[in-house]
């Protein structure tokens, strides 16, 4: 945290009404939601393109946007609009057409009903178009390195880019960095890792391969239902022979919309901190070594991947977990298991708790944690940092326990949270209130009006209210 005098020495950027830091799933959605509701919005993003893990991380498919049983689409609104626009250009398959156990779902059953396969290049282009149509100002290639505060308020952020160090004043900030960089630097209390030892989920560098024999992979997977993870028995045999050093129980692989092209979610780096540049560097080096080893293993051992070639590796290693900003409410595992109702619900989701073990090759889904409810809710208070007055958090850095985060961290709920946080930021700016004082009933009504779904319990009443309020 820096003083106003420090900011005076830096390049000055024009003031911003709503500043969104980070253009991943939650940042894209927050920026669109704020701009479409009248705010002047600027997005600061460290990469030269938008999408966060959707694009830079090569992460995919988008895990389910439906209830756990696959019957009801829960994450709608901006997420659904984004997917349909990608689908219209051949860049995605709508989740309503994708079933668990299939190649698009990585042959996984539990938790993999109605995932969304998509092409990362389509995601980059469509997201950028949507931001530009909404009038969002972009500042790419720019990293937020610090903040200037005034008590519980952020006055602006300190950025580093090709122009040097700069100061960007802002009225309200939505922290969508995944790591809670902004809120943490402003002095908000944060939690890190699981209770007891503070360990976090491992990192994974995604990569894609081409020239895969799609049919052979599918036939093998169908013929081996005993494998919990694809190719598990082959991996176990190779490990016993000392030929598989990666702490993973199988090959997690997902077919993409492009024939012969699959995403590989199988490297695993344990014990590194995603908020440390030194650890991130070490993790990138270790993971890139694992990519080479896996490509060799595919050629010798894995049916359908014998002739696979590396298409690309992600621009960044994927970080599953770092800081969680302590909010007015901390979402818990019990809330998700019980499907607890919150009066201030602003997002609903159905993806189960998915913990990749912080210390071993186990997971996902073999940690003995009971299934979550078919539908669970995320309250607005989990997006409101307890210690700050003009900052909201959204996405991976929301206020949740280690276990609850392991469910809501996937990309569709991050879109849903962003839509709510962006709207709340726009209204806090317009009304001159703190983020703690945003009228949540009005927020819910507007979210429903713009296509979000907040669950059956609230929806009919809200929808009626929204209809009555239209044009007022
Ligand atoms: C290995 C791995 C596998 C996963 N698998 C899946 C999956 O299959 N399906 C699924 O739906 N989800 C999956 N997830 C979860 C999901 O990708 C993330 O939790 C989700 O993308 C979080 O969204 P976000 O918007 O909070 O953050 P991110 O997607 O991380 O976006 C954050 C953005 O902020 C930017 N940023 C960060 N710090 C700064 C800063 N200080 N200044 C400027 N810009 C900054 C980043 O460049 C990035 O663009 C996976 C995650 C990982 C790591």
TrEMBL record:
Q: Check the record and name the Pfam families matching this protein.
A: FAD_oxidored
InterPro entries linked to this entry:
FAD/NAD-bd_sf, HdrA-like
Record's superkingdom? Bacteria
Matches recorded under SUPFAM superfamilies: FAD/NAD(P)-binding domain (SSF51905)
Any one GO molecular function term: metal ion binding
Q: Name the keywords, alphabetized.
A: 4Fe-4S, Iron, Iron-sulfur, Metal-binding, Oxidoreductase
Protein name listed in UniProt: Fumarate reductase/succinate dehydrogenase flavoprotein domain protein
